[in-house]
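S1.2 Input.
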Amino acid sequence: MRSYRDLFRTPEFTPLFLSSAALTAAQTTGGLALATLVYRATDSPLLAAVSMFGPSLAQVLGATLLLSGADRLPPRRALTAISLTFAAGTALLAIPALPIWSVFLVILTQGLVASLGGGVRWGLLNQILTKDGYLLGRSVFTMMSGLMQITGYGLGGALLAYLSPHTTLLLSAALYVVSAAATRWGLTARPPRATGRPSVSTTWRTNGTLWRSRPRRLTYLGLWIPNGLIVGCESLYVPYTPASAGTLFACAALGMLLGDLAAGRFVPPVLRPRLITPLLVLLAAPYAAFALHPPLWLAAVLVTTASAGFSASLLQQERLMRLTPDDLSGHALGLHSAGMLTLQGASATLAGTLAQLTSPASAMALLSLTSLTVTAWLARAGTAGAPGGVLLDEERAEAP
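S1.3 Output.
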């Protein structure tokens, strides 16, 4: 599979793509509306932030309880049910005068459900595409996610300017229903990828199996930590430059799109393992310059350049799939997604704390240096694609 045209000619790829696009638009639009609603009700920036990051932070709990279902549930039925659950929860959040404790209970439930959804979705994508097509397909989904986040936040902001947060939440719920419809009538019924019933004990046992392998364990750390720390830098755009934060967010999305396009479409397979470390360095290094308080035009250039380094995640996911048996692919990708989102939420909290104690610019520089330190350690451990590294030998020994 060599081109985007080949992807969209593949049966079931397009409906899964459209379903994911509607889901992402619903999440961003609804998240912005909910944060606005909570802030107006409580006048608390902390509660408003938690209302947006809460589902991400809750995914670590879902990864320890529900993730075995990623490979043990029929994917079409599971994805449809997940979208409808989000639609119902979002409609519930739109009820006027809903108590704040109820709001956070719904958010926790949505986070738990989302931890299962990532594993089901990406495991199915791994089935739909050939092994050599997964990276290209995943890059398209990543680019779509960035574009839909920009669209969703823009749409959410425009809607909130004319409509109430409650009405905007109802429109978000409608987008979840669209996602469910695309899944239900666009995908074929497939059996589960693995046998047995999903359970907490199976989740723990499979997590242990995935984690015990040193190559997989180090790959997970490489997927979670450097990426998460730089998302912490992004969470400080607003306090760094309140009037121009939107410009930096747009530049970050542009850089990520260009990086994913290059990695997914133009980098030959033989070079991919060796580019992971340089891309992780590219992801972090530009943020060290924020300690010098660069002007907006230079900050925009730095952010665009750095965000191209997020494409390292695509190459690391390809490595993870090479190290994982097919019947565990959904669970493995779900664990990656849940861990990544959890680390991103935790890093945003850490970034805010550091900025409170120092300054947004200093916090960005500190997170950048920490990310570079972790990347250097991973490279020495052989997990970040160092030429001739230990991990490459272990991959050959452990690949299924």
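S1.4 Remarks. The first helix runs from residue 4 to 9.
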